[in-house]
Amino acid sequence: MKRRDFLALLGGATGWALGAEAPQADTIKRVGLLRVGPAPKEWIESFRQGLRDHGLVEGQGYSVELGLADRAAQIPEVLAQLVRRKVDVIVASGVPSVLPARDGAGTIPVVFIFSGDPVAMRLAASLARPGGNLTGVTVMDSAVTAKRFQLLKELLPGLSVAALVLRTQGPENTRYIEEARRAERDLGLQVQVLTVRDADDLARALDTAKNVRALVVVGDAQFTTARARIAELALKHRLPTMFTHGAMVEAGGLMSYGPDYRELYRQAADHVHKILQGAKPGDIPIEQPTRFEQVINVRTAKALGLTIPSILLMNATHVIE
Question: Domains in the chain and their CATH numbers?
Answer without folding.
Answer: 3-140+260-283 (3.40.50.2300), 142-259+292-320 (3.40.50.2300)
